[in-house]
Amino acid sequence: MLDLMSLHPLIIILVVIFPAYSANFSPAFFSGILRWKWHPLDRGKKLGDGERVLGDGKTFEGILVGVLLGVLTGLGIQQFISGYPLFLAFLAATGALAGDAVESFVKRRRGFKRGEMWFPADQLDFVIGALLFLSPFYLPGLAEILFITFLTIAAHLSLNLIGWLLGLKSVPW
To answer: Would 125 disulfide with which of 66, 103, 133, 147, CB 3.0-4.6 Å?
Structure first.
């Protein structure tokens, strides 16, 4: 078993942020699999600008599924890396979903429609949220932040393009 603190800092940030990736991807993935009714966080409410607070893409069930999968990812990490506290997985997952919701709120205020691309906010919202929630316990250096930023943007754009080419997504972003 590997010890978390003996790993290279670029590997540590990957390990610490990985539950955020799981949490970010899981609501959209599971909404297509799970056949229950998904309930929007904003309950359909609109603000003075006439736009929804968050929209249909941010749901109570999505938060539940995202945090659960993030914590399960943390449990998996613990099987291979000693010294990895499970509460980091919870914070990363919760922060990722909070960051995504905040970005959705700002997008609505700026007039973006659901599914419309806003680069690089769409790619980094969940990482920023995760890092903010993790910051009292884990504060990466500038090199680690730049590494995870570029890796996240590249992975996000590449995987979405592949999903679009395979017909799994309606847009290539």
So the answer is: 103
Please indicate, yes or no, if residue 103 is contained in any of the structural domains: yes
On whether residue 145 sits in a domain, the answer given is no
pTM higher than 0.85, yes or no? yes
Containing domain of residue 72, as a range? 2-140
Backbone angles phi, psi at 46, to 5 degrees: -120, 155
Burial class of residue 148 (count of CB atoms within 10 Å of its CB; 0-12, 13-18, 19+):
buried
Asked, for residue 132, whether it belongs to a domain, the answer is yes
Q: For residue 173, tell me if it sits in a domain.
A: no
Write out pLDDT tens, residues 21-47. 999 988 877 776 766 777 888 888 888
Cβ atoms of residues 129 and 97 within 8 Å: yes
